[in-house]
Amino acid sequence: MIGFILTGHGHFSNGLKSALDMIAGPQQAFEIVPFEEGEAGAYADKLHDAIKAMRDQTDGVLVFCDLMGGTPFNQSMIATSKIDNVSVVAGTNLPMLIDIVMSRTETSTIDELVSEAVEVGKEGVCHMALDLSDDEDDE
Questions:
Q1: Distance between CA atoms of 76 and 55, rounded to whole angstroms?
Q2: What are phi and psi of 104, to 5 degrees?
Q3: Please, is 33 exposed, middle or buried when counting C-beta atoms within 10 Å of its C-beta (0-12, 13-18, 19+)?
Q4: How far apart (Å, rounded) are the C-alpha atoms in residues 99 and 91?
Q5: Is the confidence at residue 136, as pLDDT, over 60?
């Protein structure tokens, strides 16, 4: 099975994990590693240790980050150079996580999950608007 690590600035990972648990229930092989203010030095070790521990228990690790270029993303990318079969997806959103945890199986590959995460993440962003002008004419 592929394990998941969710990380990001501040309460990003805590909030998404809370929402994910509410919708999809608790997940196995899923950990969060928040990047809190003032912990830049300790965070790198904390994230690396979490990825390494998850990799020791699973066939691979998919790290979900809040945005490309930030400390969580940069430290995750460094881990990919030191630990085998680790991939990073930036721009994580709730629709992406729900889909990925619901579709992950024992035989899912990291490449399949990365492709699906990116596609579903894009589809989860949209703009909707109600046209209220027609409602007034109907009355």
A1: 13
A2: -65, 135
A3: buried
A4: 15
A5: no
Domain spans in the chain, listed from the N-terminal domain onward: 2-138
- End-to-end CA, the chain: 57
Look up tokens 């809370």; give the residue.
18
Phi, psi of 4 (to 5 degrees): -120, 135
pLDDT-wise least confident of 39-43, 48-52, 87-91, 93-97: 39-43
Question: What is the pTM assigned to this prediction?
Answer: 0.91
Take residue 87 and report the two structure tokens written for it.
Answer: 């991939």
What tokens does 126 get? 């949209």
**What is the DSSP track for 72-137?**
HHHHHHHHHHHSSSEEEEES--HHHHHHHHHH--TT--HHHHHHHHHHHHHHT--------HHHHH
CATH number of the domain at 2-138, please?
Answer: 3.40.50.510
- Of residues 29, 46, 33, the one with CA closest to residue 110: 29
